[in-house]
Amino acid sequence: MTLSHEMPTAEALVRRLHDRAEISDVQLRYATGTDSRDWELFRSCFTEEVEVDFSDGFGQPVVRVHADDWVTATAPRMESFRATQHMITNLVITFVDDDRATCVAYVRASHHLPNSTGDSDQTVHGYYTNRFERTAHGWRIAAVKLTALWMTGNFGIFQAALAPPHPRPI
């Protein structure tokens, strides 16, 4: 620990800057992996087990799951939309110690699906509070929490995206 009157070494400063950059990169890979449907990239963001909290706005229970299972559950949901765009900004990274940190970041998550229930778009406005851990493979998300502040558009497209496909007339 550095006391307030002590100056951190150049090496310590560089390491902290590198850690911040790596955490930011992981947070952005999360969005890029989701929107590009690159599930290997998305999986690279997580520790082996991850706590997932999408209870706010979506009513899903908080769960602790193996990251592979989280990716397997997320992929078909996101692939059901014609397109998604997750914009993550205003990252505030706070270090607990050398190997644990929290990143709070704004998110605007847009979901597009032409449908018969109304508007084709739905957008979640809120923020992520993600807990990170340093692993042998670099910084990874150990817990992801989405706080939805408000939503716009047609919330019904979430149900439409997950509905079984209807046979089309020939």
TrEMBL record:
Taxonomy, superkingdom: Bacteria
Domain SnoaL-like: 15-144
SUPFAM superfamilies noted in UniProt: NTF2-like
Leader sequence residues: none
One Pfam family hit: SnoaL_4
This protein's name: Nuclear transport factor 2 family protein
Organism whose genome encodes this protein: Pseudonocardia humida
Taxonomic path: Bacteria, Bacillati, Actinomycetota, Actinomycetes, Pseudonocardiales
